[in-house]
Amino acid sequence: MRLSIPTLVLGFLVPVFATGDDGIVTELKAIAGNWRVVHFEHKGKVAPDGDAKASLAIEAGGKAVLKPQGGEIRFTLSVDPSKSPKQITLTYDEGPLKDAKQFGIYKLEGTKLTICMAPPKRPEIERPEGFTTEEKDRTLVIHERVDEGK
Questions:
Q1: What is the pTM of this model?
Q2: For the segment 13-49, what is each residue's pLDDT rounded down to a tens digit?
Q3: Is the separation of the CB atoms in 62 and 30 below 8 Å?
Q4: What is the CATH number of the domain that holds 101?
Q5: Is position 150 within any domain?
Q6: Which of 24, 100, 36 lies closest to 62 in space, CA to CA?
Q7: Residue 115 bridge partners (DSSP)
């Protein structure tokens, strides 16, 4: 049996695209849920425990709501788990940052979700490469999954 080059290329691409979409859906499901902030750091400075109170709710489809003290921020997130470190992009749904993007990286380790972000409206090239904020205009937030049964 003889296969043409286009058939071979298509045969390799279809599984790659299918796996990519499945990987994104799987990853969004993995980070979906209710989270509370347990660590907040900006430009190398760690916020005192009492100042870092906030909750984050993420739906499996990528819609999310961050509730810092006295406020609410709605955004849509997208992920790329094929990158190393994994990439996350927030798109603000309302308010003064409506439609602005914020680029970052993330890791999910058990019940901890760590996100390191560049400021909103910065170009994608400023996406962090590591989970550090020192000497950079970066924000690092560690979230802990909230037990749904409590």
A1: 0.82
A2: 333 333 457 889 999 999 999 999 999 999 999 998 7
A3: no
A4: 2.40.128
A5: no
A6: 24
A7: 106, 141
